[in-house]
Structure formats: C-alpha cells, structure tokens
Specification:
2 helices; about 55% strand; disordered C terminus; YD repeat-containing protein; signal
Length: about 550
C-alpha cells in the first residue's frame, strides 16, 4: 500500500503565495454588470502580463452559456532584451486547451490526465514559433507542434489518448472497463517502436484475480509478466487471505501471501505480507524472506488515527534478521472535522534483535488551529531529519484577523544556522476591495520587499502592478469587459494533507490506484475573487501538458 502525504515544506512555501486573506464581506463596485460566473476566472475575457524584460504572457478564455470555461489559450512572446536595439520577437509559444466541464475529475494515474479547474481536458495543442535567421522575423509555420487528444466515457473514465508530433501520430493509449467501471485493459503504443498491453480480470466480489503485461517490439515479445490472485473470503464477503503468484518471462516465479483482519465496522485493521524470496536485478533468487505488517487504528467516527508499517527481511540460510524498520503515522482531528495534528516517524532496529527500534531516522509533526468559522489561524511544524536535536527544523505560521478580516499572515522558518521570516500585509479601500498586498521576506543576510497594487479602472479592467524593492518587475491587466469586475469573496480549498486508506488493489503496484476511500484535509480560506488572479499569475510559467 502506498501511503501518500503531501510534502509540508512544499505546502508551507506555496501557501505564502496562494493563501489569500480571509474576508467576511466585500463591498460594492462601480460596475453596472451582473457577474454570473461563480468560479475562477469569473468571466474574465483575458489576463495580460508584461514583465520588466518586455516579455508578454496572455491567457484568454472561452465560456459556455453557464459561464463555465470550455477553452483557453496561452500565448507567450519573448523579446530580445538588448537595450541598444529595438525589441525584436525571437520566440512565440501558443498553448490551446479545450475542456469538458461536465467531467469534474478524470482518472489521474499513469498516462491519465489529472484533475483540472475547468473540467477534463479534451485537447491540448502547443505550437512554438522561432526566429527565422534569414529574415530576422518569426517563422510563419511552427518550429514545433504537439497535439494531444482525449476521449472519455460519459462517466468520466478515459477511453483513449492520442499524441501527434508535427503532424505525425507518435503515441496512442486505449483503455477498456467492465460494467463496474473497473479497468480491464490498458494499451500503450509508441509508433514504430513498441506496444505495451496490460489486462485485468476480477471475481464476483470485484477483486482483482489476474493481471498480465506484455511488451511487443514488432512481432517479437520482449517482456512478459503475469500475476494471479487467489482470494479467500469470510462469511461477510471480506478477503481474509490472498496468494499472489508472479511469473516474469515464463520463469522466476515469486509467491506473496497477504493476510487481512477487520474490525466490527469491516474496516481493515491488519494486513500482513510475506514474500518467499526476492530477486536481484538479474532476476536470480536470493535466499531471504521479506515480511511486512501494516496496522490501522480508527476512532469512533471511523477516521484513521494511527497507521503503522513494520518491515523486516530474514536470511533463510542463517535465520538472522538482515533489516528491520518501522514507520508510524498519527492523526488527530478538530471539532470542525478538519485535520488538527499530523505526526510521522521512521525508526530502525539497529542491532537487529527484533525488539526495540533504537534509532530515530526521521520525525515530523504538525499542529493546526482554526477559528469558529473553520479558517486556519495557526500552524506549527517541527521536522527532525536524522534524530539529532541539532538538525531540528521548525515552522510557525500565524494568521491575524481584525474584525474577521485577515490583516497579517506571518511565517517563520527556523533551520540549521538560518532563520527566515515571511510576512504579508493586506489593505483595502473604503468599498472593501483589495487594493494592496505588501510582503517582506527576511533571510539571515538578505531582505527584500514586494508590493502588489490593484487599480480598478472604469473600462472594467483591473491593473495589478508588481514591485520588488521598489522596482517594477511585472504588470498584469485583467479584462472583464464582457461580464464586469467580480465582487465578493471566493472560498478556497487548498490540499494540505491526503490520508491514504487501505484498499485491496494496493497489492498490485501496476494497477491504477483506487482513491475512493482516501480522505483529503484542506486549509479552507476565503478571499476576494481578485486575489485568485494574483495567486495564479504571480510566478509566470508556461503550463505543461496536463
């Protein structure tokens, strides 16, 4: 089973950019329009940004009658920044997307596209135009063109994906499913290279009983793997034992045995895995046994509070341990249902006596506090990377509210021989509109300041000026001509922690994971709608294929 926990450091650094102010209410606007779009980009026609180097970034949107985004185009133009010459375009990149807003989330494993703000991506086209050295102008035909097309079933599962490079189809992916939406086949074809085929079959309980993988190069089979699953069930239809037999290229059989125990709520509380032998890189048998034991503890509400994985390997010839370690996850929950505490430790049995884990290899602990409205007010975290107190790193994140409005957002990071502070301050006009975000960043020997200033124009555009240390580095203009400048706030859900709950498909690492049982705990924040444009466009970068 794969236990996924999002990196807290990525989260902490990202939240400095993405965490908007919590605003209980926003005042009116001079707009005479009635904005009907309920989510980002709130009916905006386009977002245009110019950097200090003169490069331009433009994003435009196409909507359906319900004001859902069904298409968007990104255009990036790079200029020669030689100060002694007239600016010359030397590169132009255009990326086009189409979306199906009726498909909120598509399967996101392997070659599948992931979730998208605007629904499933149905097509993606990227064109790059470079400078023609002979004419000194941009080429009229793209230097490079990539096209990707997706087709879905009505219920959102991906049926096929086709990749076209410069007019030539290079890759094709096809998927089939049974009546219960379980994947039954997965075919990957690299034209003029190889074809990989994966097939899956299930028993009457919906559990996987066979998996096969074949790789063909031309008419020759170059790789083959078959996995068979034999399940034993109790009177409640719960699996109590699974025998997994793996055959690679018709030899080197490997047998794994899984045992399962459940509580009275039919939740898995214990899973054991034993492997008769491991293979080295050349698929020769090595004489030792691997064992893994996973244990889950739940509270009265059925929420996971502890997850432990203990693994060891045993030399079959000598009967001695060759490795023994433990990983522990602990969770606690707030009254509002959100996550209140997360703790993770890695320990090692260094003397291999099979008893106590003497060495702490890694430890991380995070606490979350919320106000009565359910918004984050304080976050503290400590991380110990090697069990040595001198390696302790800590994060303190405090959100200060005034009359229900977040006015300060401060985070300090204390690590080995360094101390960093990030501070954000928010200002509004008399109508309650966000007009400025000022930030200060202080390292041990470096300080810099950033200010984002918003101007609301009569022509239904908003100008955002970004300055760093009083020097302008970016200007963004958001065009709301069609729908008018949006007012009010938007409630954001930012993924902070994903807790993986056990499911039977985890025994096959080649199978797309079923995340139906997993729980996501998010930092809920409320912001003026205009702040989303700052957060999303602050650090400009070309968006990659989904």
């Amino acid at each position: 089973m794969k236990q996924k926990v999002y990196s807290h450091y990525c989260y902490f650094l990202t939240i400095l950019i993405l965490l908007p102010l919590v605003l209980s209410a926003c005042g009116g606007s001079s707009s005479n329009h009635e904005v009907t779009a309920s989510q980002y980009p709130y009916g905006a026609d386009s977002i245009s940004t110019t950097t200090a180097d003169g490069d331009t970034y433009t994003q435009s949107f196409e909507y359906n009658s319900a004001m859902q985004v069904v298409g968007q185009i990104f255009e990036i133009i790079h200029y020669d920044n030689n100060p002694d010459s007239v600016p010359v375009i030397y590169s132009r990149i255009v990326e086009s997307y189409t979306h199906d807003p009726t498909i909120a989330v598509a399967i996101s494993e392997g070659e599948f596209p992931g979730p998208n703000d605007f629904g499933a991506v149905t097509s993606y086209i990227r064109e790059q135009y470079d400078l023609d050295e002979s004419t000194g102008e941009l080429k009229t035909s793209p230097t490079d063109k990539e096209e990707i097309y997706y087709n879905y079933a009505d219920f959102g599962l991906l049926l096929d994906k086709t990749i076209v490079q410069n007019g030539v189809t290079t890759e094709m992916y096809a998927y089939t499913y049974d009546d219960d939406n379980n994947i039954t086949s997965d075919t990957e074809t690299k034209v003029d290279d190889y074809t990989k085929t994966k097939t899956y079959s299930y028993d009457s309980h919906g559990n996987l009983i066979s998996y096969s993988y074949t790789k063909l190069e031309g008419d020759s089979t170059v790789d083959r793997k078959t996995i068979n699953y034999a399940h034993t069930y109790d009177d409640n239809g719960l699996v109590t034992e699974t025998i997994v037999t793996t055959i690679v290229n018709n030899n080197n059989e490997e047998i794994e045995q899984f045992g399962y125990r459940y509580n009275d709520k039919k939740q898995l509380i214990l899973k054991t895995k034993s492997t008769d032998a491991y293979y080295s890189d050349d698929h020769t048998v090595q004489g030792f046994l691997g064992v893994e034991e996973q244990e889950w503890v739940y509270n009265d509400q059925g929420l996971m509070i502890t997850f432990t994985t203990e693994t060891f390997s045993l030399d079959l010839e000598t009967g001695t341990l060759t490795s023994h370690d433990e990983k522990i996850y602990n969770y606690a929950y707030a009254d509002n249902g959100n996550i209140a505490m997360y703790n993770y430790e890695e320990r090692v049995d260094t003397d291999l006596d099979g008893d106590i884990f003497e060495e702490l290899r890694f430890a991380e602990s995070t606490d979350f506090l919320y106000n009565d409205a359910g918004y984050l007010t304080k976050l503290t975290s400590e991380m110990n990377s090697d069990g040595n107190l001198e390696s302790l790193e800590s994060i303190n994140h405090t959100l200060t509210y005034t009359d229900g409005i977040l006015t300060e957002n401060v985070m300090s990071i204390s690590a080995i021989k360094e101390y960093n502070v990030y501070s954000f301050f928010y200002a509004y006009d008399d109508d309650g509109r966000l007009v400025q975000i000022a930030s200060e960043v202080a390292f041990d020997d470096v300080e810099f300041y950033e200010v984002s200033s918003l101007t609301y124009n009569d022509n239904q555009t908003v100008t955002i000026l970004f300055q760093r240390n009083e020097e302008e580095y970016q200007t963004t203009i958001i065009d709301f001509t069609s729908e008018g400048i949006p007012t009010g706030t938007a409630d954001w859900l930012y993924d902070a922690l994903v807790i993986k709950y056990p499911n039977l498909t985890d025994i096959n690492e080649d199978m797309p994971e079923a995340d139906i049982n997993d729980k996501t705990y998010s930092m809920r924040v409320q912001s003026p709608k205009l702040y989303e444009f700052i957060a999303r466009n602050r650090n400009l970068k070309i968006i990659k294929e989904p």
